[in-house]
Amino acid sequence: MQTIIDETVGIARHLTLNRPRQRNAISLPMVDELLQKLTEAEAASQTRVLVLRGAEHNFCAGGDIGDMLTAQQNASDGDTDAFYHLNRRFGELLERVNSSSLVVIAVLEGAVMGGGFGLACSADIAIADHSCRFALPETRLGLPPAQIAPFVVARVGLSQARRLALGGTTLKAREALDIGLIHQLLDSSTTLEAALQGHLDNINACAPGALATTKYLLLQAAQIADKYALSHLLDDAAKHFSNAIQGSEGREGARAFMEKRAPEWQH
């Protein structure tokens, strides 16, 4: 069975985690496949959005136990870095999704736990239905959510991240919305699909280059520690703005506005 179902529709590359018997737990082959497909999507000029979801009404129940057992065997055989490399490889996926030039939308149903929780937090837009249950169960298994923690803090703040990670707390979808873990809560799978299409329509109205630059600047802004760094960032932002407004997308956007028509990038 494919670990990823891959479909391109218009401006969106849809990647579905496809291990339903394991509630779409993320295995190392799945990580490798996701990274490969993300690279392909970023290289495709027509693609602006990466949609992540899980097969058969679960998003992702975390990491694959089989990989843990393999790492344990490798460690027993003398590979002292087996667990380090296993854990860090998943972190590479979160980093890539978080910093991708594409807009990443997570469509969440059912289990959103451990690594799935981290993947949801690395998305730009997270939408969910009422079936969702969110949890960071790692500490209950004697483990830290090592690669996940920075993305959870970035999404919900340190105070809520402490509560979730240090208590192994399970959240229902309404509370996830209340703390900002997700951005939109829908009543059913039908309204979930309609909401996804609404976001795709909104993104379709945005210029590809402007989207990528804006995401870059937002991520840079989140790392600002003092006003001097902010000044440098805004200098950099002004250069990007100048390049954009004088570039092909900026010119086309101005023409379309004046001519009261959709810009050429809107299909």
From TrEMBL:
InterPro entries: ClpP/crotonase-like_dom_sf, Enoyl-CoA_hydra/iso, Enoyl-CoA_hydra_C, Enoyl-CoA_Hydratase/Isomerase. Coiled coil: none annotated. PANTHER family: ENOYL-COA HYDRATASE (PTHR42964), POLYKETIDE BIOSYNTHESIS ENOYL-COA HYDRATASE PKSH-RELATED (PTHR42964:SF1). Belongs to the enoyl-CoA hydratase/isomerase family. This is Enoyl-CoA hydratase/isomerase family protein. It comes from Microbulbifer spongiae.
